[in-house]
Amino acid sequence: MNRAFRFSDHRLAARAALFVIALAGSACSDLPEIVIATPLHGEFTQAANIDVTGMVTEMDPANAAVTVNGVSVVVSPGGVFSTNIAIDTGIVFNPIDVVAVDTSNGYRTVTRVVVIAGDSIGDGAYSPQSVALRINDSGLDQLEGSVADLVDFDPADLVAVDTVVLDECVVFFLGCLGSARVTVANPPPSATGFGISMDSMTDFVAADVLVDDLNMHLDVDGSGLVPSCPLEISADTTDIIGDYSLDPDAIDPTTTDVNQIGGVSVVFGNFQDHLSGLCDVPIIGDIIQLFLPDVQDLFTDGFTEFLNDPDGAGPEDAVIADALEVALAGIEIAGPIGESLGVMLDTPIFDIPEDDDGVTIGSDTRVTAQIGTGPGECDAPPDAPDLLASFHVPETFPTFGATTASGNPFDMGICLSTSAFNQLLKAQIECGLLQLEITEFDFGFGLVPLTVGAMSLFIPELAAFPASAPLLLKLRPTLAPLLTGNAGPGGELGELRMGQLLIELRDATPGVEQPLLVAAVDFAAGFELLVDPATGQLAPTVSSLDPGDVTVAILDNLVQTDEATLQAVLPLLLAQALPSLGASLGSFPIPTFLDLELDPVEVSKSGQFMSIFANLAVPLLSNGGMENTLDLPSDGLDWEGDLFAVVSAENGIEPQAGAAMLRFDGTEPTGAGAGPDAEVFQQVDLSAFAAQIASGQAVFQATAFFNRIDAGPNTDTQFEVAIDALDGGGGVLASIDQTLSTDADPASWELELTPLLLPVGTASARVYLIATEDILDDASAPEFDGHYVDHARATVLAPLSVQNADMEDTGDVFDDGTGWETDAFSIVAAENGITPLGGGSMLRFDATMGAVAGSDPSAIASQNIALGNYRGLVSAGGATLHVSASFNRVAGDANTDTQFTIIVQAFNAGGAAVDGVLTLFYSDADPGSWESHAASLVLPATTTNINLVLAAVENVSNDVVSPEFDGHYADEVSVWIEP
Question: pTM, whole model, 2 decimals?
Answer without folding.
Answer: 0.75
